Batch of 2 targets.
Target 1
Amino acid sequence: MINSKPRIITVANQKGGVGKTTTTINLATALAAIGEKVLIVDLDPQGNASTGLGIDRKDRLVSSYDVLTGEAGIDAAAMQTAVPGLSIVPSTLDLLGVEMEIAAAPDRVTRLRDALLQATGRTDTFSYVLIDCPPSLNLLTLNSMAAADSVLVPLQCEFFALEGLSQLLETVQQVRGSINPHLEIQGIVLTMYDGRNNLANQVVQDVRAHMGETVYETVIPRNVRVSEAPSYGKPAILYDLKCSGSQAYLQLASEVIRRERRLRAA
Ligand code: ADP
Ligand code: MG
């Protein structure tokens, strides 16, 4: 799409280990594979998205920290990855201190939004921006929600899957009521599903019963190839396209695109 604003999706859940980073990397790769120009913004100080895309720590010269502190723009921070059409604003451990550093600034919650507007308002560089959030509802996650069109929530298929979801949805409501009235829920994706596990089946049913159509039809299976891929610095989709996890992420991408078209039209 020429000269149109990118769709900005933040991948958020304050729980750690639910599949945020895995979803960000593989959804971004799937979107890039079908010709979208995609940017990931790594907002987690752990930098797992950056590492998982093969970006060496020593090469992260300009990072999301510099963007939030106003030291650099998105254009300067974005690095091309090995995936054609996929760039990333990497993160470094400096991000751990950024909340303190910008806490007193009046624009502390809109730093990322302003940076993205400056970078993308004038060009057609990116059609999608995916933001990988830290496991917290902190200022970093709030920055992502202020900047985003929609929130994509990964939920792990485990007993406490729904725990914490209401708090997350409340935060989305607060953001809608203040800095970003247009923020939508893109959807909820169930991750690390193990079909041999009765509990996992129960969780899928429960989450669908509670959250209805918000939940994507696609369920991401637990798949060892998906968990191996980051140690090779590759998205699962490049590491093993045929594995069940990669195939599920390709399917998720088409659902996400369908929903974005609907949200954009609304
Ligand atoms: P988060 O970003 O929410 O903390 P991650 O995406 O890092 O979660 O996932 C947590 C762990 O689970 C990682 O070790 C990751 O490789 C693994 N993992 C995520 N999704 C899958 C999957 N579908 N199958 C197997 N392992 C997975
Ligand atoms: Mg993560």
Note: The two ends are 18 Å apart (CA to CA).
Target 2
Amino acid sequence: MIYHHVHELIGQTPLLELALPTPNQSRILAKLEFLNPGGSVKDRLGQMIIEGGIAAGDILPGQTTIIEPTAGNTGIGLALAAQRYHLPLKLVVPAKFSQEKQTLMRALGAEIINTPSALGMTGATKKAYELAAQVPGSYVPNQFNNPLNPAAYQRTLGPEILAALGAEPITAFVAGAGTGGTFAGTAQALQAAQPDVYTVAVEPAGSILNGGPAHPHRTEGIGVEQRPPFFDQVRVDQVQTISDDAAFREVKRAARELGLLIGSSSGAALAASLAVAEQLPAHATIVTIFPDGSDRYLSEGIYD
Ligand code: PMP
């Protein structure tokens, strides 16, 4: 097969059974989203936001300036998609997020505007709307509240998992939540096909879903400052709160024992999957998502 454009390479990522000792002889199957061309699960969202926005008339090819708050991976996905339709792109990124991701966004043609780390994604979102008010013909997709976010995963990631498993039942679905789009959209697709799939959202310690105190964390890409609106459209059976230490321990183990170079949110997803396996009956099939790879966090000492 010969492909003709990088955009054709988004999605259809492999589902890998992890060769790890697991509680209760369960199987953990991980969707390797770091194999997308922009290196993360958010390539799917960038494509959906731009093409959906064009279809709705919110985005005019070659004209509309796209302005979006992002921790990085959505920015990279948007930059890939914006390039195809010749759309100027301004990304508002809290300064704390990895320099590698910011470098990649710039390489793909985006302009970066940094906001203070202490103001979090809420501060970046506010800044994005302030900029939009100053830039004529601009559009803020706002991934935190855009139905195209879960839709991207309901239409692509969920069906890919179901196709890979065929008739085989899925016992549990475990995925990290930042905007909550990946979790909600995928869980919706899985529950539509198999209503009894047990769904587990994963957050780092410092995120508020389980009611713990909000504080900074090293696990990047997941964690919420408020409950994602997308959670209203899906059944959330459990929230697993994973410490940074537990997430980074699994990141290192995945490299050493599985040859997998995963980011910290993938480490958290793996730690949560192992915890869930302990609660489930024997021979459970657990599906999880590895959203991105470790190469964009090397300067942050992900393997130190
Ligand atoms: N992991 C990483 C590395 C991410 O960049 C993101 C997106 N912020 C997520 C997980 C969570 O995805 P979502 O926003 O769909 O909840």
Note: The first helix runs from residue 43 to 55.
